[in-house]
Every structure is written in C-alpha cells, then in structure tokens.
C-alpha cells in the first residue's frame, strides 16, 4: 500500500528543512482531537455515518443524508472550553495538538467564507477552530490543522468519474470499464478551486500553523497527487506558513510518514503513528487501553525514532469523558517523572524488539525493557564506543551488568517495573546511530510481512569465512535487512540445507527476495537456511530476516 517514488520525483517535491523538523522530532507526543457531527451518536467521524460515499471510496454508512445533515441544527457545545482542552493536553505530556477542521463529511468546523455548511451556522455560532488555535498559541502549544481532501458532501468533489470505473477487490479498489479511461469527474476542477480557497483560508486566518495534516493517503494508487494538484497546493501552504511541516497524505513524500493504528517501522525519516484510545478515532464508550499499554506504545515509537499522535474526541456537549481524561493524565504523571528518557531523544542505537527498545541523546542511552527473557537482556556492543556506567532510572535496585568484547549483558532486577524497567547507560563517546539504523525501509511495506528473526553474528561465529542460519522450519522469507554496509558479503538460500540457490552479492543493506530475486509474481521464497559468505572475516554482523 505504500507509495514509491523515484529519486527524481523525490527531489522535485517540496520539504521542510531539517532545522524546521527539529521541534517535531523532539516533541514525540501529540494530541489528535477527532471531533465533529458524529459525536451526536457516539460514533466515529464520517465512515459509519454517511450513507453516501463518493468514488473512489465505496460502501455505505448508517445514516441517509436527510438524517445526518440535520445534526448541525442541534450543535451547541454547551461545555466546550478550548483552554481546558489545551490544559489537558499539556498535563498529559503532549507537545502539540492537531485539530480536525474538516473530515470526509465536509462539515467545516471554522467560519469559512466558501460554504454555508459550517459550525458558525449552528446554535453554537462560534468559530471552534479559532478558539482552539488561540488557546494553543496562548499556552505555547504547537498547533496543527487536519484537513481531509475527501469530501463526500461537496457537490463538485469527483477525483474519479464514477461512470468510468468499476469496483475491484484489491487496491486501488477500482479500474476503468472496458474501453474507458479513468479520469476525474467534470466538476472536479471546481472542487479544486474551492479546496485552494479553504486551505488558503486555514493558513491565513488562524495565526501560526505548525502542522498541516492531510488525509487522502496513496493506498495502493487509490489517491494520487494529481487529484489535488498537490505539489502546487503544498508549495502554497509553505509560502503562507513558513516553517510549517506537512504529512505524507497528499500523494507526495511530505515531511514525515504516518503509519496508522500501529507502531511504525524503525527508520531515520521522521514518522508519526496516529493511534486511538479504544479503536475509535472520535469518542466512543468502548473500553480504552490502559495507561501502561499507551506508555509502552509511546516508548516503542520513540525507540523506532517516531512520534505518537493519540486520537480522542469529546462528547456532543463539548466535554471530554472523565475516565478517558484520567488515563491521559496518568500518562502525563509518568512522563513528568521519566520524560527525560523520552523527549528530545533519537531511536536506537539498537533496533527495537517486542521485549525492549532504546533511545539516546549525546552520551546517554535509555533502554526500555518490557520483558526479561531468561532474566537477561543481551545486546551487541556499540561499535567504537564503550559503556562507562549503567543504572536503573525507575528502580532503586543496583543493576548487575557486564560488557564483553562483543556483547552487553544485563541481569533482570528482582522486581521488574510493570511498564518498563528503564536503564540509563553513559557512553565514552557521543552515541552514533548510522551503524545500527537504516534509511527508510522497504520492509515497512506490508507485502514483506514482519521481522521474524534478528541475527547478531559474533566474530568467533564464522567458520571458513561462512555461517549458516537455521530458521528451524520452512518460512516464506521475503528479504534480509542488514544493519551496516557489507562489501564482499554474499548469501544464498536453501530449503533443505543441501541444495543452495540465489547466490547473491550484498550490494545494499536491504535485499528483497520478493522483488529482485524471486521475481515480482512470487511472494518470497520458501526456505529454511540462509548461508552467508565473506572474502574476509567480519568482526561483527547484524541483520533482520523478514517473512510473510
């Protein structure tokens, strides 16, 4: 589902500068306020509501247009207090807020000049977005605007002409009818004119905007940049709001990636996982995740060098649910104690696993240990660096650890912390991550499955300059991701350990058996053994094995 770009396409697009991205990378944690008309029935925005969806989206919600379009006449938000919302975010440890201005239902939560379908035409009458923008600015909170290009209510919205397509089961979920060509509807240019007007309005009426959060992701070709004139649109935004950062949901690369409802993949490029309290973006009475689970999601994301944008919504009256608020405040209390290990860090230097993760800053590494396997945690040493000191951050017990030539071994405490036992390491040299971190990974694509094994090859493990990895069973292996460059290294694969094939030189850190070796039509390779050979003995080698 992920979008691929050629180097030329990437270079031709527009980006925030590394300096402009600094605050975002250091913030780590934001609030996603998902609120709108659907609060009337305690359901998510748009998808379960609107019976009418427009191509290329398909399916139906539960409410005819004649029903849900009457809800604005009852929109009063009697208990809405923008300053209180911002205080909750601050007390929860969040460093920025993204507010939905318009979702797919096309209802404008600001006083736009370009539609009558807006919040100032309801009994509430006030400009909801302005009050939140002002409250953020007054509190020193970074402020972001969510704007959906999808608009199932706007009469001119037609990125795909429905008369020329038919639905199909797989992405992009539509294809041209026989003898026809997929084109926008005849009215779509009018919609684009409207869209440029309202986006310009959002960038000029509400003071400093730090983030612009679009929401029509590529999704296997379902939505593309030309549907929104995205290059021109995003360049206009950057001109109107210097220093703004823009996500990757316009069909362009954008400034950061946005995995959804999952912790993102370990990578250097900035990313932000948008996740929910209980599976619903807006308010829902369903049980929510515990503070412990949510904190682990924060730590796991930071370990992978990413942020979390946590979504919730208010009741119809404009007030947040008390129990949900209390959970966020619990997270905030934890971050007040241990936020130094979280904010302003980079992920690594070790690739996170299900039982641990790590962040670092300068001469410090912060290890988050969620589970101790066999009461130990063993990690490879850091190249050209040395651990000088180790101690628990959130436990009074003295840590037991040792540093060998090729490994670091930590012993579990008598009573591990229920969320994460945090270990602070002090290093001789500032921590570098380029040995352990990889660039944007091809394995973030769901087609490659998941990481099934991480191998750390010791200097003493090589026999006659080769080593064989046994997966213990046949796996559909899709690729290998090496932690460092490996000149002179080659590998081959086998199902039985006797017949070897695909002898390949490792010219990149990421080797795909799916695309480049086995052929695009074959999803991976059914193998059990991986053989590595090198012309000269390696001191240390780390790599991940992916399978589906």
Automatic annotation (TrEMBL):
Keywords: Glycosidase, Hydrolase, Signal. GO terms for cellular component: lysosome. Pfam families: Alpha_L_fucos. GO terms for biological process: fucose metabolic process; glycoside catabolic process. Its EC number is 3.2.1.51. GO terms for molecular function: alpha-L-fucosidase activity. InterPro entries: FUC_metazoa-typ (IPR016286), GH (IPR017853), Glyco_hydro_29 (IPR000933), Glyco_hydro_29_N (IPR057739). Residues 8-340 form the Glycoside hydrolase family 29 N-terminal domain. Belongs to the glycosyl hydrolase 29 family. PANTHER family: ALPHA-L-FUCOSIDASE, ALPHA-L-FUCOSIDASE-RELATED. Alpha-L-fucosidase is responsible for hydrolyzing the alpha-1,6-linked fucose joined to the reducing-end N-acetylglucosamine of the carbohydrate moieties of glycoproteins. This is alpha-L-fucosidase. It comes from Pedobacter lusitanus.
